Amino acid sequence: xxxxxxxxxxxxxxxxxxxxxxxxxxxxxxxxxxxxxxxxxxxxxxxxxxxxxxxxxxxxxxxxxxxxxxxxxxxxxxxxxxxxxxxxxxxxxxxxxxxxxxxxxxxxxxx
Length: 111
Prior knowledge:
The chain is mainly α and 111 residues long. The protein has helices at 18-24, 38-46, 60-63, 70-82, 94-110, and strands at residues 29-33, 50-54, 88-89.
């Protein structure tokens, strides 16, 4: 979404080459809704873009609707991001996630 609120491009992530997409928009910002697999999208995008991860349930206009398709979430998330109303949450780097994985295995083996 551009500064005027117009959709620039709609891409299905499962079919997209994220590195190519990130390089094409290298000076842009991206916002992701936090999911269990958002790190797999965040990592390649963050090499070229400023990526913000947010918790979608904290955005009232998204959380107020019980049943909605993802495309509604995406449009509303983009609109709220454009208005600088998105609260960023911590997205651990790949290194931090690896270290946390080692730590959890070590703690289990010590018990």
